[in-house]
Design goal:
alpha+beta, OB fold (Dihydrolipoamide Acetyltransferase, E2P), de novo design (two linked rop proteins), 5-stranded antiparallel sheet, 3-stranded antiparallel sheet, 7 helices, 8 strands, DNA recombination, RecO_C, DNA repair, NA-bd_OB-fold, DNA repair protein RecO
Length: 247
Amino acid sequence: MRGRTHSAIVIKRAPYREADEVLTCWSWDIGKIRLLARGVRKNESRLKGALSPLAWLEFDVVPSDHLPIIAGVRRVASYSRAGRDLKRVALVFTIFEMILRATPDRQPVRNVSLLLRSALDQLSQDGPVASEFLLVFRYRLLSALGYQPRFDRCSSCGRSLKSEPSRWSPSWHGIVCERCALGLERISILPAVGVEFFTALENSTEVFPQVMLDSNLEPLLEGWLGGVFQTIIERSLNSSPFLVKHA
């Protein structure tokens, strides 16, 4: 049987049968994939110590009738420092779950791969994690998947909104005009500083730019953007309570 090699990071592990695990990975070449790690829960398994959750890995796999089977693994890059405290661990779990929930199987998105690598680089750096880290990651992920919020025009009809209040609609992934807002649920007014923050993100060439954000505004923007994300994936994130506890 002809095998393949995938460069990927493990975003979820699930037990399977007596000693196996099913690994959900995000790969550069084909996006989200599931691989079978046979015997990995046995003490003598050669895979046991190699499957780091915070590393880009190269997997040698062989096809099977069920899932591709891991035949070998090599570490390409380590992000172990991203797991050195509970806050960082909570953030890692959350961004992994976002990618897990928001992406279909076997559809590569280069910008998601680049975003994930940049996020792990950020969490591996010395110093405190920026308070707006998760907000920026969520915005970048939505943009990479084609759901980038619109702020200059109505997200429904496309009409210019320069002279209107910014009515935020999670179901339309952005701002809507007064006419299109009629009959929509969960409409709220987005402050001008919120529009300025998202516009600065959109115009920045850096993935995680140094953008100042008022601490009182951050939870509001996270709530609005989180509403868009929840509308897309049609469920809330399981990691949210853990993140709140260790933020």
